[in-house]
Design a protein that fits this description.
Order of helices and strands: HHHHHHHHH
Shape: extended
Strand content: under 5%
Length: about 210
């Protein structure tokens, strides 16, 4: 973004760069399931717009989880305000000020901070608990159990039910591990299909006369 400012100097480009910086920070916060862990929070507080980086000094390793969560929420509120103000001066305006503002942009500025406060006060978690990753994880796990923990004959539901119940009660959603597992499964399927294709396309040997 620094290079962009040098190549195309001007207030509009500077505001657009601010929008990009704060949006990246906001995306990190929206993806956090636990917003009261110091190690994760301190890295998020260091990013974003320079005017909001001072929040990094409001927490310490011995700060309470509530103080850490409040710092993250304040960070999001400040970044969202910058995105809204600078956005109205750039991509949210075509002819009249704010005429390109969408419902989603309005929600992330006006409503999400309020939801974050409610969710943390009730569940001690971040807003990322509402994404689709946990559902996809459960779906993927159940398929893996059926494929690799049963003989795929007879009453598959009965065979896999006990193990699925254990998995769903004790599992922790590790996104990186799941991605690696999916890649491995794709490679195995690809190799299996390639092997089947070679077997099908190989002409049968003719008997010697």
């Amino acid at each position: 973004m620094g290079l962009l400012k040098k190549l195309i100097p001007g207030t509009r480009i500077e505001n657009l760069c601010k929008c990009l910086a704060v949006f990246e920070s906001m995306s990190s916060i929206l993806g956090m399931i636990f917003i009261d862990e110091y190690d994760t929070a301190i890295e998020v507080l260091k990013g974003g717009n320079q005017s909001t980086q001072q929040l990094v000094h409001t927490i310490k390793p011995d700060s309470t989880p509530a103080d850490i969560a409040n710092a993250i929420i304040k960070k999001y509120e400040a970044e969202a305000r910058i995105l809204y103000i600078c956005g109205h001066q750039t991509f949210m305006t075509k002819t009249d000020k704010g005429d390109s503002e969408t419902y989603y942009l309005h929600v992330i500025y006006k409503y999400v901070p309020y939801f974050m406060q409610i969710i943390y006060s009730r569940h001690r978690l971040g807003i990322a608990i509402f994404n689709m990753e946990p559902f996809e994880f459960k779906n993927f796990t159940s398929k893996q159990v059926v494929l690799y923990r049963t003989n795929r004959k007879g009453n598959i539901c009965k065979q896999s039910l006990c193990l699925l119940q254990i998995y769903f009660k004790t599992s922790f959603h590790d996104v990186k591990a799941e991605i690696k597992q999916r890649k491995k499964a794709r490679v195995c399927r690809s190799e299996e299909q390639s092997s089947n294709s070679r077997t099908t396309n190989t002409p049968a040997r003719q008997p010697n006369p």
